[in-house]
Amino acid sequence: MTASQTTPAVRLEGITKRFGDVVANDSVDFTLEQGSIHALLGENGSGKTTLMSILYGLYDQNEGSISVDGHEQTFDSPRDAMEAGVGMIHQHFQLVPSMTVLQNVILGHEPVDNGLINDGAARGRIEDICSRYEFDVDQYLDTRVEELDLGAQQRVEIVKSLYRGADVLILDEPTAVLTPQEVERLMDVMADLREDGQSLIFISHKLDEALEIADQITVLRDGEAIGTVDTAETTEQDLAQMMVGREVLFDRLERESSTGDPVLEVDGLCMRGDRDRRQVDDIDLTLRSGEILGIAGVQGNGQSELVEGITGLRSVEEGTIRLAGDDITGMNRRRRIENGIAYIPEDRQSEGLVQDYSLVRNALLGNQTIAPYANGQILDWDEVSDHAAEIVEEYDVQPPNPDATAGSLSGGNQQKFIVGREIGHDPDVLVASHPTRGVDIGSVEFIHNRLIELREEGLGILVVSSKLEEIRKLSDRIAVMYEGEFIDVVDPDAVTEEDLGLLMAGHEPTNEPPQQSDPQPDGGGSRD
Amino acid sequence: MLSATVLERIAIAIASTLSAILIGLVIVAVAGYNPVQFVNQLVVGSFGSERAIVRTLRYSTLFILTGVAVAVAFRAGVFNIGVQGQFIMGGFATVVSIVGIAPLLPENAVGGTILIAIGTLAAIVAGGLYAALPGVLKAYGGANEIITTIMLNFIAIGFVGWLVAGRFNDPEATATRTRQLPEYVELPSPIVSDPNFSLVGLLVMLATVAAVAVIMARTSFGYDMVTSGYQQSAAGYAGVDPKRMIVSTMTFSGVVAGLAGAVFVIMIQGYYTDPSGVGNYGFDAIAVSLLAANNPVGVVPAGLLFGGLESAGSHIQINSDVPVQLIDGIVGLVVLFVAVPELFRMIAKRTGLGGENR
Amino acid sequence: LGDEDEGNGNGSDDAATEVAIISSPAGFDDNAFNDNAVEGLEAASNDFDLSYTTIEETEEAQYESIQADAAESGYDLIVTVGDNHTDPMATNAEQYPDQNWMLINNMIDGADNVSGWIEMNNEMSFLAGVVAGAMTTEDFEHADSSTDPGESTVGFVGGEDIPLINAFEESYIEGVEWVNDDVEVLTGYGGSFSDTQAANDVAESQIDDGADIVWHAASAAGAGVFSAAQDNDRFAIGVDVDQSVTEEQYQDVILGSAVKALDEATYQVAEAVVDDDFESVVGEQNLSVDEGAIDFVVGQAVEGDLPDTVMDSLDEAITSFENDEIELTCGPTSC
Amino acid sequence: MSVADYTARTSVRLGGLVLFVLIAFGVALTFTDEIALERLVTFGFLSRSLEMATPIALAAVGGLYAEKSGVFNIGLEGFMIFGAFSAAATMYALGGTSPTQGHVWAALVAAVLVSVALTVLFAVLLIHFKADQIVAGLAVWFVGLGFAPFTAAVIWGSRSSPGLTSIDPIAFGQSPLILLTIGIVVASWVVLYRTRYGNWIQAAGENPEALDTAGIDVNRVRYATVIFSGAMAGLGGAVLLAHAGNFGGTGETMVDGRGWIGIVAYLFGNYNPIGAAAAALLFGALDMLNVQFQTVGIDLPSRLVNLLPYVAVIVVLTAWGKTRMPDAVGEPYESEE
Ligand SMILES: Nc1ncnc2c1ncn2[C@@H]1O[C@H](COP(=O)(O)OP(=O)(O)OP(=O)(O)O)[C@@H](O)[C@H]1O
Ligand SMILES: Nc1ncnc2c1ncn2[C@@H]1O[C@H](COP(=O)(O)OP(=O)(O)OP(=O)(O)O)[C@@H](O)[C@H]1O
Ligand SMILES: [Mg+2]
Ligand SMILES: [Mg+2]
């Protein structure tokens, strides 16, 4: 027993979890005090979600014990965990999009009257919860979840847990999908919950958030708990070092050559998204050779559509796209590939690679009409094999076996393979969408360095990312996208993260001129 | 379908077939027939004599061709359940075109050859178009192809049946059928002389298998198709227009099905009847293709197996009184087992057979 | 060729005469055509040292091959049902000159080893029409059912809408009109020879519309017509065989059946083979009213109850056929 | 409310079908000079349409439950064949060739039990062994087409049963099974949209993980719906038999594609039991209209007119297609331990 006087809300001791050969958690100890917020930090794949899934009864641990409120528990299913008062808001929301908010909240815990769902009782309880924490969820109980924005969906998730009687709430990366304003709002909610005696576990990659809200912070690395610290007694630098195991540089990458002629020009581009909403609204941009243009923005502000428009995956409503001076607006994706637009897709799992194909077959993806891999319609598999082997070698893909299936590779290695493939044959333009999403620190550095090298070689690169450090590190210019428009174009050397954050949230910078640098470093490419 | 190695697929196919036959034998025994004799007749009836072998090859030729048609579509992730309808449309087009054009050409081997070429072309066009239709409806109208192709099967049967009984009925014949192909429209039959089988037909079938296999494995089009089947989103990324791909896949599949229809008419039947009586090749083909894990080369042994079963069925009819529906039931069981590779993986694991998992 | 290992037939009983019968595309178990032919063989197997095997082949394209396979198996007689067998048999009769063949519904010109039997379906249909046409104006009751003399309407339900059945329909109508020009004939098709419910629906619709007697040419699906008659207290007429016997359940509503002696034909041919006298049946044989092979049999339950006027019309029709006084538009299998 | 929304989408589609029926009428009337409408649309026509619709509606309701929960049961046709056959066999076993009404009801129950037994096996293959749903469903059809007639031949020496008996009508000459079907349809609607089980079924098909994390066993829900779908298809087959009065096992058997139409019906009805039943009724009406045309002597090529429902399916699916399948259909669900 520890020295603390009160029984901790949750206590995990010596938790070990193995997936085959992967040790996701390696004898982890973790204590959540009553009425506190405890942050769990760690890089991708460090085992945060796994640990919490064990606490939530989704996984069985191989070793170790769980106690809640001082009672040792074995959870065979989330239902057991919920009965013990543990609720979890997942990284991917566990909501049924086509069902209403009400149905979602009460799912699995429907109050029943004569066999039928007692609608009134359910509504009453939800309204109670909402009024207690000042949630707005009761305003849209009959709306279908798919019609809500992500922030609202998240609040539905929280209400769902509270409805189920949780007094320990686990929030797995709740801020990843939110705008800064929504993050603020969430922080308030969490503080309210704490006030009301709830105990919370808050998972994040973001040091500043953890420092802002948590009482205690535990860092995981490679499945091990590296340490637990009180928020008051730590700094961002310390935490970063704990997470990564070495010092981390936040600096911009060096670059030597200057930018050249425009390679990609977009003029008055308008596009519609999946729900027929206008997602790209009159965008102009110019990308020059030897330039990295960063596009920053909170997800869902039209970056994906813009990228798809440029790469030919989505049709354009209005406007023109020119590649090295030639109008390619009407060209299909195939022709654009052949004409030198390379693309590192946002979703490597479903777009960038065929999971069940070997790396060799994947090396052909997108190149199936390009010499030397194809001669007219006829494929030359020897060439493709050689190409795959080259990529694996040059990009240090692990395991170094071109016959392995793509699905068996880890995310970072998948990404390295894609980068290798996409720049294999001298494209003129590279569009890189979230090039390091879900990639480990080592691979991130590798990919970043590679992108800079390509820039130096004269490639025009468009980088879309929601990670501010990444954008700042790589870009020669940063365009901030908000609700389908470029709200501003800024110089990464001059802009602060706070400003970027404000811009991403849609705050026009004009009223704070002193902090702002010249928004048009190279003259072209700004919005009108 | 679940991913699996080639060896594993073969093992599963064999295990499925054996399990189905085993259950079939139990049923034979329970129903009061002699299972040993049944097995004996299965073997004798499929490969036990020259006649049996020729009969097996005749059935197999059609099973393999239609099986390849199914495999093409399934491989690309398009569920063409309509091969039967395309097969019917193809065969009927062959008859109509040959009978219609024959008077314009000399009545000799040369004319015959030209007519065969025309008839085959007509079948390919008809089969292709009839398959393209649900392809277009799926791609541009969002209509589920499983449902539309099933409907189109019914429609093909009804429509061709109506034409055979009406507009294209042979006034000289008492039975309901079209006019016959002229007798000089005939595939040469070297080595084996059988009125309903020709090695040339077999070669056409093998050439088709080879061509399809090469297209799938060694051309950009094939790569696009197979990639679409594995992962639609990745295919789109790689520059495949998913809508066009659906249409071309269906068309390709229908072309092969139409070709099967032409072979059926030219090599075997020589005229067209009510399509409800032309056999269920297009349906059994689904089983054939699945047994082969939708691999066009694998369709050859799978088609031989089905051809053998069918051929044995007809032998059993002649030589015993076991109802032939039993064979249909066993075929159904084969398919059922093929659908459940996991079952055999599990058994293999339990019994320690099958070596490595994964 | 021909290393057929285990000879032929149903191995067990070593009968002297082995017969095979190959079905029409409709298959056996149709309670009509195919089964009728089998019945003759069944009777022959009881009377003689003979055994038979049924071979169901619904795929017409296989007929040439399966006939040959059967011939290779060494049967003494091969019976084929349906004129769909005609063309293949022309080939095989030549290929297997020593084989005895029986072809039902057609004949092969010049073949001296084929016994070709043409059944006058048209005459049979005509007789059914005569009875239906005569009955509908009569006031007749039996069990729960009755006619509606006020309304002169009768029905015809076909299986599939094909030329063969169209010929049945047409000749039936001619029979009805031969008796009484004013009778309206409602006709319809269920679209299937096996979907009893579909045939039932067509019959009910006709009964609704005033038909009090319905005849069917729908093979196994025809049972649906009987049940429609039963459920609506009307009458039906059977086809091919005495269906008041084969569909006993519906005896009450079956006025009678238009029958053809197909069973007698197969029996006769089988007997000829047993007696080594196949030549006597070679060539064209007719199942016609004239030969006494087409008839109308009154149903078991109403035996003797049918009004005399009806029986008179029937007799008159039969006599007219015998005197060649009736010209039918349709042939036995198509119009 | 989502219910209203479903209904809205459904009605557009059903509207399409109604339009189709009306057009068919229009065509017919232009072909005729003065056929009185009252000869075409009779009480008998309506009641036959209802009777025609019942087996289809039952299969459809079963099928939509399975699919709503994430399992595509494409084997409905096969289960209907088994249902019809086992009902006939039971009737025959109990009452020979003259079974009583009691035997008919016993046969209906037996058919459901047999179907449940078979579907349990099927469900284990689909859910536990993760069988490919399309393939396994097709296999059920093949197996049904093979073994039901085979067993019939073993029992009766013929693939078709002898004439047994059909169910007696109750009030207004209507079969009690029509009432039973209406009851089942309404109950299915209530369960799906008004009870917790309905919520679970929908969640299992749309996002099984969400249901799992709510503490409900996804696969148990799916077992229940798949078994229900088999039971309903079996009952549908048995109802068909109870109306027809004997089993026809030749050709495509007496079921003759009704299971397929059942699938189409629930797609039309957009997975709403009442919508599915309405679609089944429209298909029934279309079929029976064709019969009426023939009866009153409107001389359309009946073979072509018979194809109308199939054409209607294609036209309507295309014009108002895009039925939104539940997201997780076809994917086996594996709870993380
Ligand atoms: N179901 C699983 N099967 C096999 N391996 C798994 C499974 N779930 C997680 N892992 C592995 O366990 C390790 C820890 O994963 P976990 O999801 O807990 O990481 P995380 O810290 O939540 O990462 P992220 O920040 O990306 O969410 C990873 O290597 C991962 O690949
Ligand atoms: N669901 C799963 N089932 C089986 N293996 C898995 C699963 N998830 C991950 N793995 C395996 O675990 C290993 C780590 O995968 P994952 O992508 O989660 O790692 P990661 O830590 O994110 O790696 P990277 O940092 O390179 O992106 C890989 O070898 C992968 O094949
Ligand atoms: Mg995680
Ligand atoms: Mg009358």
Protein model, in words:
The complex is a heterotetramer of chains A (about 525), B (about 350), C (about 325) and D (about 325). Helices cover about 30% and strands about 25% of the residues of chain A. Chain A is of the alpha/beta class and about 525 residues long. The C terminus of chain A is likely disordered. In chain B, helix 1 packs across helix 2 and helix 4 packs parallel to helix 6. Chain B starts with 5 loop residues before the first helix and ends in a 7-residue tail after the last helix. By secondary structure, chain C is of the alpha/beta class. In chain C, helix 7 links the parallel strand 10 and strand 11. In chain D, helix 4 runs parallel beside helix 6, helix 5 runs antiparallel to helix 10 and helix 11 crosses helix 12. Chain D has about 325 residues and is mainly α. Chain D has a single domain, classed as ABC transporter involved in vitamin B12 uptake, BtuC (Orthogonal Bundle). The two termini of chain D are about 35 Å apart. Classes of the chains: A alpha/beta (about 525), B mainly alpha (about 350), C alpha/beta (about 325), D mainly alpha (about 325). The interface between A and D is medium-sized, with 33 and 28 residues.
State the helix count of chain C: 10
Order of helices and strands of chain C: EHEHEHEEHEEEHEHEHEHEHEEH
Helical content of chain C (DSSP H or I, runs of 4+): 25-40%
- As a percent range, the share of strand residues of chain C is 15-25%
Instruction: State mean pLDDT of chain C (0 to 100 scale).
Output: 91
Q: Let me know the largest β-sheet of chain C.
A: 6 strands, parallel
**Overall number of structural domains of chain A:** 3
Q: Strand order within the widest sheet of chain A?
A: 6-9-10-3-11-12
Give the low-confidence spans of chain A. Answer: 511-528
**CATH topology value of the largest domain in chain A:** Rossmann fold
Summarize the structure.
The complex is a heterotetramer of chains A (528), B (358), C (335) and D (337). With 528 residues, chain A is α/β, with parallel strands linked by helices.
